[in-house]
Amino acid sequence: ILNVEQSPQSLHVQEGDSTNFTCSFPSSNFYALHWYRWETAKSPEALFVMTLNGDEKKKGRISATLNTKEGYSYLYIKGSQPEDSATYLCAFRGTDSWGKLQFGAGTQVVVTP
Amino acid sequence: EAGVAQSPRYKIIEKRQSVAFWCNPISGHATLYWYQQILGQGPKLLIQFQNNGVVDDSQLPKDRFSAERLKGVDSTLKIQPAKLEDSAVYLCASSLVAGGTYEQYFGPGTRLTVT
């Protein structure tokens, strides 16, 4: 994989349900994988920086896992709330970059009451 | 701590006109980034500054885009002349340094519409 790909592009979730989505990235020259949450009309907000294979990070009801050998990361939202509605972006940083992030197109999550 | 500030938040111009965006990073952050996010795509790095020097501008369309970071603090991104395909959100971000796992902190962006 040369690009950073996210799937699905969008998903609708009922309030209270849990959901997850995927970020695929190059499995070579891996340095770090970033997750951001971007709400409409606001600044993208950093969620996690993941660096080690097998890493698991958690922030409230949101968690993420990382598999650098196969080049994917999952982001999970447990018990979705309307305030979780946002676009979730992942960004790959390679060892040959100098802070440069390569972003996926994002997964847009809409949580309905 | 104040976040990354950007202005204007919205701008509508006609093609072939010029436009400028301003960014004020978090105090003390040495690295500043400008990204372009076209609808349906992820943000794409246009230019990266370390203090007032350019680290990476490989994806900046230099025939029409220019950017500067005088005195290593504020930055301005200019488009002259604008094309329809420049319609996008322009995000500014800053980080303490470029290396390591330091986070990039983003401003709210400027939404540009070129008609």
Characterise the protein shown here.
The complex is a heterodimer of chains A (113) and B (115). Chain A is mainly beta. Chain A is 0% helix and 55% strand. Chain A has no helices and eleven strands. In chain A, strands 2, 4, 5, 9, 10 and 11 form a six-stranded mixed β-sheet that branches. Chain A has a five-stranded antiparallel β-sheet with strand order 1-3-8-7-6, with no helix packed on it. In chain A, a hairpin with a 2-residue loop joins strand 6 and strand 7 (62-67). Chain B is 0% helix and 48% strand. With 115 residues, chain B is mainly β. Chain B is built from no helices and eleven strands. Chain B has strands at residues 5-7, 10-13, 19-24, 31-37, 44-50, 53-56, 65-68, 75-79, 88-95, 105-106, 110-114. Classes of the chains: A mainly beta (113), B mainly beta (115). Chain A binds chain B through residues 4, 32, 34, 36, 41-46, 49, 51, 89, 91, 98-106, and chain B through 3-4, 31, 33, 35, 40-45, 48, 55-56, 91, 95, 97-99, 101-109.
What brief labels describe this structure?
heterodimer; A: 113 residues; mainly beta; six-stranded mixed β-sheet; 0% helix; globular; B: 115 residues; four-stranded antiparallel β-sheet; 11 strands; 48% strand
